[in-house]
Amino acid sequence: MNGQDTLAGLGWQPCFQQQLSLDEWEDAVPARVVAFHRSEMQVATEDLQLTVPLHKDMPKMVVGDWVLLDAEQRFVRLLDRKTLFQRRAAGTEMRSQLIAANVDTALGKDYKRTQSEAGKLKGRDS
Which domain of life does the UniProt lineage start with (predicted)? Predict the structure, then answer.
């Protein structure tokens, strides 16, 4: 088992756990979205990488989102995001395109710390 094979290694934080009811904590499986394909998404749990079918009644999700799965590995719900990268979508309509969620913990790295270090380096170059 490597560091990515634990919930913490996948970026799980207390703010996500606080969103779960006691029943969900006992019965549901937290999973992080790691990829999207045409009609399915890949998620990583503490133990497995799974493929979950996408349905039109599901909320819009992006890589980095945390979802809950039931015992049969079906989608239950999307957890609230801590952060979201988005941009204005192409075209004339005023819509946004979701890029990634919860990126401050992507790949087990602390995004805020990296931003801070980059700012210090930029200040030295000035």
Answer: Bacteria
- In tens, the pLDDT along 33-67 reads 999 998 999 999 999 999 999 999 999 999 999 99
pLDDT tens digits for 71-85? Answer: 999 999 999 999 887
Place of tokens 């801070």: 116
Q: For the chain, list the domains and their CATH numbers.
A: 3-125 (2.30.30.140)
* 125 contact partners, CB below 8 Å, separation of at least 6: none
Could you give the count of Cα atoms lying within 13 Å of 110 in the half-sphere of its Cβ? 5
Contact present, 36 and 58 (Cβ < 8 Å): no
